[in-house]
Amino acid sequence: MPELPEVETIVRGLRTVLPGHTIVSVRLGKTDFIEEPLALAELLPGRRIETVERLGKFIRLQLNAGSAAKSPDRPINLLVHLGMTGWLGVRRPEDPVAPHTHVFFELEDGRELRYTDIRRFGQMRMVAGDQIDAFRDSLGQEPLEISAGEFHKRLAGRRARIKALLLDQRVFRGIGNIYADESLWQARIHPARLAARLHSTELGRLRQAIRRVLQHAIADRGSSIATFVDAEGQPGEYQQRHRAYGREGKPCFRCGAKIRRAIVAGRSSYFCPHCQTAPRRARASGKAEARV
Ligand SMILES: [Zn+2]
pTM for the complete prediction? Predict the structure, then answer.
């Protein structure tokens, strides 16, 4: 499913083709993932797309006030979350329409911004221009920008498993299962460790690992595990660099031990039982949650 690097990859693709273009009409298929679909279809035509950026796992299209729009004095933002299987990209009208394409934004030059989503766990909503800061603040810290001090403050002393905290979007924006496991492997930290028990050197290592993993994944245009393709329809390549995620039973790239899988924080978690030492108490009681 798309995490920060995949969403960033889509955003970078859209940024090269959308800004300066105006939405002239909106056609909707299934709308159960859209907040206020009628308002969306009514308010977006006539507005120009100013910028495209990523807010956590949301794609933000900043739209101007619009001359033909119903409320021409109010800039708005279209926010799109890709959920599990969402895709947003620009196509020419004669290009074949992919199955499960539910939204078409027709642009003034005839091209279409299309939203496709097989499982419809995505989200689409509008946020008023003056509400976007509050929305951004609700999302947690951007892991590529967070300072060492802020990183420590958010994790130190927390009585929760480090994997659960990495996945919590109120703590950090955009990290999901793949990049949590990859970062923990790089930092040599077991996913079931309690954040409160991590030493400050381990937290420092983890912050660096997250940054490195996300930056490399963005450079490789994300991981294509199930359906992900970029805004131009090309798969990413970072899945070839995975060191932990999806590698159960395969040798650890560092020590050769077999990568294991366990359920931590309700999610399949991949780790090296040798490089990433399990928390002591969990090991003694043999809890399934931290099986090693
Ligand atoms: Zn290892």
Answer: 0.90
